[in-house]
Specification:
about 280 residues, single chain, transmembrane, mainly alpha, Bax_inhibitor_1-related, 11 helices, membrane
Length: about 280
């Protein structure tokens, strides 16, 4: 046999110093898994905290626009005389939303993501301000208060419940399409009952969406979750779920205050609000 192939098997000759080094003991797989879960939970908690802080700033801006349009007659009158501004804001909102959803740099790269988020917030606030100017101030603040309580309760429910809503994305999408088709029917055949049913269904659907979005951010045992780098995307989802329960009724392009253009605040389906909707339908 060749000596080169057998020499590693032979014991070394001569004085050989032996060095001992401490052997690093690897953690048990369960311990490693617990550490990873702890790190994941810590990252998720910071992620959720960041999203809700920015979302609160968004809501403050929206509330400022609402107050301006509700309490300033000149601003609300200007918006009423120029209905094209509403559709301009809607187009800007829609294009900004598509850009943030389709391009990673638009929602992950700083400061581009905050620029697009700011444009989205201003356009959304302007639209809600125009909608809010069509109703009495007490109705607006009742709607905002109820929506805030509803969102808080749903967020707490999303964190504590054992039901995994993240697997319902396809079902919710189908429901949104069905609601959109029903909204077109309401535009063609307006009526108090139709508007009330449409508004309640819209509030219920987007309430479920808020639970769905919150569980996506939390991750954990849920089947699907958002990347912690998608903070702007999460803010966009929660903002849409937060605003839509307030205003879920159709609008006609000619006049915001016409029959089919009477926006209904879905969270306040009272007789007084129904009377105001019928009154605006006759204007």
């Amino acid at each position: 046999m060749d000596k080169r192939s057998s020499w590693p098997l032979d014991p070394p000759k001569g004085n050989v110093k032996r060095y001992t080094q401490p052997v690093e003991v690897m953690d048990h797989p369960e311990s490693q898994l617990q550490n990873l879960l702890f790190d994941e939970q810590t990252i998720r908690q910071k992620f959720v905290r960041k999203v809700y802080m920015i979302l609160m700033a968004q809501l403050c801006v929206t509330l400022a626009f609402l107050s301006l349009f509700v309490f300033n007659d000149d601003v609300s009158g200007f918006a009423y005389d120029n209905p094209a501004l509403f559709w301009l804001a809607f187009i800007i909102l829609f294009i900004t939303m598509l850009i943030m959803l389709c391009f990673d740099d638009a929602r992950r790269k700083t400061p581009i993501n905050f620029v697009f988020l700011g444009i989205f917030t201003l356009a959304e606030s302007f639209m809600l301000g125009i909608i809010a100017s069509q109703f009495a101030p007490d109705e607006i603040f009742i709607a905002v208060t109820i929506t805030a309580i509803l969102c808080l309760a749903l967020s707490l429910y999303a964190v504590q419940t054992k039901v995994d809503y993240t697997v319902m994305g396809g079902i919710l999408l189908v429901c949104v399409l069905a609601l959109l088709i029903f909204g077109i029917v309401v535009i063609i055949f307006p009526g108090r009952v139709m508007i009330m049913v449409y508004s309640c269904l819209g509030a219920l659907l987007f309430s479920i969406y808020l639970v769905y979005d919150t569980q996506l951010m939390m991750g954990g045992k849920h089947k699907y979750s958002l990347n912690p780098e998608d903070g702007v995307k999460s803010i966009h989802f929660c903002s849409a779920s937060n605003v839509n329960p307030k205003t879920t009724a159709p609008v006609m392009p000619n006049d915001i205050r016409t029959s089919s253009g009477a926006y209904l605040l879905a969270v306040t389906p009272t007789k007084k609000l129904s009377h105001n909707v019928n009154k605006s339908r006759q204007m």
